[in-house]
Design goal:
heterodimer; A: 278 residues; mainly alpha; MetI-like fold; 2 domains; two-stranded antiparallel sheet; 10 helices; B: 286 residues; alpha/beta; Rossmann fold; four-stranded antiparallel beta sheet; 7 helices; 10 strands; globular
């Protein structure tokens, strides 16, 4: 999309990137100064308890490739990341498979909406944290419980965004399709879904982001591989540095999965204007 | 999308010929009949409001009828009833001798805001209806190409509607319904959103298309000049909910100006003035 300034696009892109990395650099710098100076901030944050950024960088390297400390922790990142990614993708895929079709039906047919809306609104405010004890009792420890929690958490934003997007489909497009001889199923799949794609994609992105949030919660119990379990173990061993490394890796994984989703869809849609550019 | 379909192998002899002439259609397919048509909208806590009441109108196949009248007189309501978007509360509504119960490809609608599918290219928009009617792939492409050429957009076939001007988008919308071989063309202020110059061009083109296709046209418009320039008959509507009386037909005026009409000619202006008076008379509360 066109920028607000008159600068050439590459100049503007460069400036944006420089600004973004500048702020990130500033955060790392403040972090380093805070650790050295043993700052105590609001909420009684004791910066002195944090590992310095350089140590964290070294440990992250070791976590990924080994060769620095060579202990049980070294080089295990990929194993944990792979286990976590599988759970996130599994839960996210299930949530999408349920949330999008159900959302389309709820958005389009008021009887389906009337039937399901009360149930949705009753279950939606129950946070994933409140589900954990019940899930542990009725599913038990393990990957299944994590995938269930992720599915549950990603489902609602996907569903609600889909419902809203479908309700905002211009009635004119439905009229146009019908006067061209389109049957109801064709209207739903050929007009309503494409016209709602932008909103559905917003829901998917929120859902995928939430999936990584819930991952840590799900993997906190009875799982030995996964980034969440790695963080939980590090906390039990009071290894603040490993906790921070885990946080950074999850942050990166969440960020990269969002990019992958957006670029994947862009590849799928080509230059077809299905999604409004952010 | 480009996968070969089973239907692609069948000879294209079954469907309508991709030609502008409509010789194959039943002679009366384009006949429109409204008899005692009333549309009542439910109003909160009241008995309801009649948008139009007791409308009788017969349009012969191939005829071009324009409907004029002040805002709120129910002219768009009539068009929507004919399109099958809304049912009439009372009365008979028939197209081609069959009662109208729902929208269908025999009644192509051109909207003021085009109603194109923004995620489909020009060609895909034009093929949309043909696809719905399960025409073989080869035939779909041939018909679409032909009608895109008819509206002069061959160079823009692979563009998306958002990349085109308003006039071009409306041409796509017209090509889209014509490709579907409708018996009746229902147009609701089709050129209302266009600039004056584009509007004039589009009027010329619509006139030509009507002559070439012989499709019945019902055109709702604000512009009396447009009505006189294009129509065989002009229906003047009056009343409307704002006036406390239901909308209805005040007068039907035949346009006897022949084939070549000059908007600056004396007889043209005379007819325009007369219609204008009728519209304004109907605009005053009785």
């Amino acid at each position: 999309m066109a920028g607000e300034t008159e600068a050439a696009p590459w100049v503007e892109r460069g400036l944006r990137a420089a600004l973004g990395t500048g702020v990130l650099g500033l955060i790392v710098l403040l972090w380093d100064l805070g650790v050295r100076g043993q700052w105590v901030l609001v909420f009684d944050i004791k910066m002195g308890y944090l590992p310095p950024p350089l140590d964290v960088a070294r440990l992250t390297w070791d976590f990924a490739f080994g060769g620095v400390y060579d202990d049980a922790f070294s080089g295990t990142l990929w194993e944990h990341l792979w286990a976590s990614t599988r759970r996130v993708l599994g839960g996210f895929a299930l949530a999408t498979a349920l949330g999008v079709p159900l959302g389309v039906l709820m958005g389009r047919f008021r009887w389906v909406h009337a039937a399901l809306d009360p149930a949705v609104n009753l279950f939606r405010p129950v946070p994933a944290t409140a589900w954990v004890p019940l899930v542990l009792l009725i599913i038990g420890f393990g990957g299944q419980a994590t995938i269930f929690l992720i599915t549950l958490s990603a489902f609602f934003p996907i569903l609600l965004n889909t419902v809203a997007a479908v309700r905002e489909v211009p009635p004119r497009l439905v009229e146009a399709a019908r006067m061209l001889g389109t049957r109801p199923a064709g209207v739903l799949l050929g007009v309503v879904v494409p016209a709602a794609t932008s909103g559905i994609v917003s829901g998917l992105r929120i859902g995928l982001g939430l999936a990584w949030v819930i991952l840590v919660l799900g993997e906190a119990n009875g799982i030995d591989t996964g980034l969440g379990s790695m963080i939980t173990l590090a906390r039990e061993q009071v290894r603040t540095d490993r906790v921070v490394v885990g946080m950074i890796v999850i942050g990166m994984a969440g960020f990269l999965s969002d990019r992958a989703l957006v670029h994947g869809l862009r590849l799928l849609f080509g230059r077809r204007p299905l999604v409004r550019e952010a | 999308m480009s996968a070969p379909r089973p239907g692609a192998a069948t000879p294209p002899a079954t469907g309508p010929a991709p030609s502008l002439s409509r010789l194959t259609r039943h002679a009366d397919a384009g006949r429109v009949l409204l008899e005692g048509v009333t549309k009542r909208y439910a109003a909160r806590g009241a008995a309801g409001v009649d948008a139009v009441a007791g409308v009788d109108l017969e349009v012969a196949a191939g005829e071009f009828v324009a409907v004029v009248g002040a805002s709120g007189c129910g002219k768009s309501t009539l068009l929507r009833i004919l399109a099958g978007f809304e049912p009439a509360t009372r009365g008979r509504v028939e197209v081609g001798g069959r009662p109208v119960t729902r929208p269908g490809p025999d009644r192509g609608v051109v909207f003021q805001d085009y109603g194109l599918f923004p995620w489909l290219t020009v060609a895909e928009n034009v093929r949309f209806g043909l696809r719905q009617r399960r025409l073989p792939r080869g035939q779909r492409h041939r018909i679409a190409e032909e009608f895109i050429e008819v509206v002069g957009l061959t160079r823009f076939a692979d563009r998306f509607p958002g990349e085109l001007s308003g006039g071009m988008q409306q041409r796509v919308a017209i090509a889209r319904v014509l490709a579907n071989d409708p018996a009746v063309l229902l147009m609701d202020e089709p050129f209302g959103a266009l600039d004056a110059l584009t509007r004039t061009t589009m009027q010329h083109e619509l006139r030509r298309l009507h002559r070439e296709t012989g499709t019945t046209v019902l055109l709702v418009t604000h512009s009396i000049e447009e009505a006189v320039y294009l129509a065989d008959r002009v229906v003047v509507m009056s009343g409307g909910a704002a006036h406390g009386v239901p909308g209805g037909i005040a007068e039907i005026v035949p346009v006897t100006l022949g084939e070549h009409r000059d908007v600056n000619a004396a007889d043209f202006n005379e007819l325009e003035r007369r219609l204008s008076e009728l519209v304004h008379a109907g605009h005053r509360p009785e």
